[in-house]
Protein 1
Amino acid sequence: MKIPFLSLKATNQIYEKQISEIVVQTINSGWYILGERLQSFESAFAQYCGVKHCIGVANGLDALVLLLKASDFPANSEVIVPANSFIATILAVSNANLSPILVEPFLDNYLIDYQAIEKAITPKTKAILVTHLYGKCCDMGKINTIVQKYQLKVFEDAAQAHGATYMGMKAGNLSDGAGFSFYPSKNLGAMGDAGAITTNDDALAERIKALRNYGSQQKYVFDYQGFNSRLDDIQAAILSIKLPHLDTENQYRRSIAKRYLSEINNPKITLPPTDSVDEDSWHLFVVRVSERDSFRAFLNEKGIGTDIHYPVPPHQQLAYKEFSHLSLPITEKIHREIVSLPLNTALTDEEVAYIIDSINKY
Ligand SMILES: *Cc1c(COP(=O)(O)O)cnc(C)c1O
């Protein structure tokens, strides 16, 4: 059997006809930027997340940068971020001319350690930007208590958490504002770059709407030094086709995750936490193995593709030389041992069974 880690062609196949039609319709409308297809996706996604505002932007990184820019913190204010995240979370803070403060995760669920957050707070701290990594929401109850105690803002990097919930509330509705990515491989993926911000804050939403469009709210009137970061109507139309199927797709991912959790029984493999299986969006199914290379080679031999999210932590990247002195042992251990198994809507029951059987033979 040959099972790729992810084939976007396979996962998008069922939408091909509808998407082709909507793309042709959009072309024929003659309106491609800030049009009604964008507006209609923004309302649908706001409603889906249970928030007042959704603002489409060019990609997930921009969503986070614009959230921080629109918050207007003094230059070099500190923003607490997870050391264990995709580098975009940290880049967003740097790109907004703020200082990222890296905080260790919990080893058991890979999410930012809220006790460590409190220790990292200084008089310069203005906000916490958490990542719902792999599609599992952070403990926002605990984090919001800290936020209130120290009068901070809190934001979500929800790029992996479309449809994930915490206490019945959707990711994107758990903070002052959230950034989503619709990069093709995400749970809700476009066919190009795309992103969005969700928030219940009217003033913040207004500023972000201006910032994504050169700082302009009214044609040729510029209130801010803005950006060009718009979500185009073709991508928005494609997302509107896929959004109504997001819950069904997440449910399918969940059913595969549940099989992995109950049927993988190899003591060499550490499985992800099971305390919120029905709430997580299961963007990725990440296990830990001490001899990662041999495990991946073994599965590769059996035709099973795997990936690593992510192999080198941000503080050890050349891009962040200023953090190279940091010792973040939990983050480093995670980056050394993790492997992502195939988990997507194109997997068949037989393929899942074969993956489980192969892993149990390792
Ligand atoms: C994908 C991703 C981003 C960035 O999204 P882009 O659309 O690629 O800019 C940010 N944070 C996390 C956690 C992601 O997984």
Protein 2
Amino acid sequence: MSRFWSPFVKNLVPYVPGEQPKIDNLVKLNTNENPFGPSPQVIEAIRAVLDDSLRLYPAPNCDALKAGIASYYGVKSEQVFVGNGSDEVLAHVFHGLFQHDKPLLFPDISYSFYLVYCGLYGIQAKMLPLAEDFSIDPADYSQPNGGIIFPNPNAPTGMALGLAQIEQMLQANPDSVVVVDEAYVDFGAQTAISLVDRYPNLLVTQSLSKSRSLAGLRVGLAVGHADLIEALERIKNSFNSYPLDRLALAGAEAAFADNDYFEMTRNAVIDSRERLTSQLQTLGFEVLPSAANFVFARHPQHDAATLAQGLRERRIIVRHFAKPRIDQFLRITIGTPEQNLKLVEALGQLL
Ligand SMILES: *Cc1c(COP(=O)(O)O)cnc(C)c1O
């Protein structure tokens, strides 16, 4: 701590990302990265802009990328916002849309960055417990609030809500912004983007980190009513005019253009998840129904932290959260078929 800090800094509790260890032959199933690389067209597009033009600032309004996303989803460009990862998009959402007198509602077991942003922006958080089966009950969100946010599918449970349930929340909260964080939507849930023209209070955020395998490029987006997007643009242009560099813009545009690769890899992840789920069940695990690129599983006879440690000794890392209600679960990212096999073999030995 330093006497030079702005006073509020000493109370900040920053987000702790999953580790990125430098260990050879590591089976890394801890941060929900995509086991398949990005589209070869993305790599090519980035190479094509690696030249003298780097001396120039990138496009400040990211118009070409927004147009590509708008056409992909059948919305207008002014309904699209892009940022340096969906984490940055979310930060602007908290700053620009959630600073109200009433508390922000979100699930108690959810993406831990939400509480971090509440701390950063001085927003009161009201966390609502998940149901007994770890699902989100939309009826819980019919109470006074200054906004609502939840991931769909939820993290780290992997469980998804249907669009009818999301509509129920939107209708119960016409005076608040409802943000659906769709970081994992492409692996098995339905996007709520089809609802944005009917609900001016709906904002959907997505990430290129998971389903488009570009965690290292840092690109995220939001789609919603142009008025919501305008708030995000005001924040962004008061913070950093160029959050996406030339390489990120070129790569992200190419990612949305190569639909075949996207469909092929996301289906491979989904198939792999279904196979891994049944293998884990055969080993005696209870696996929550996942619509994401990870599974959340517990074994009735084996302590999760001990299992995670045993896996680590075999160079396999998964995520364990030492938190109430979920401390007996492991969150396991879907890997390549070979990685999943190594995991299942190692678990077989540990059990
Ligand atoms: C990974 C993740 C994000 C952040 O994605 P980036 O685009 O890499 O910043 C946001 N929300 C949830 C629920 C996530 O799991």
